[in-house]
Task: structure prediction
Amino acid sequence: MSPQPAPPAVTVRYFAGARAAAGVDTETCAAGTLEELVGRIVETHGERLERVLTACSFLVDGTQTRDRALQLAPGAVVDVLPPFAGG
Result:
């Protein structure tokens, strides 16, 4: 049995309340799907970020998605976008 390849490294960029909850603007994380990425960043940053993520949408390489099963390509950029107040 051959070893599983490592998941691709992706760049995660946090905005507004997600940035405040994560405590960082940007980080690199290894994840094969958006669901796996969400699990890893919650594991790293904790419950506060987990609560914020329930209302967030995601841009993967500039395309909005809520599909947590989405496969992430190596080098993908995932933007974590909480709802923005506006008027």
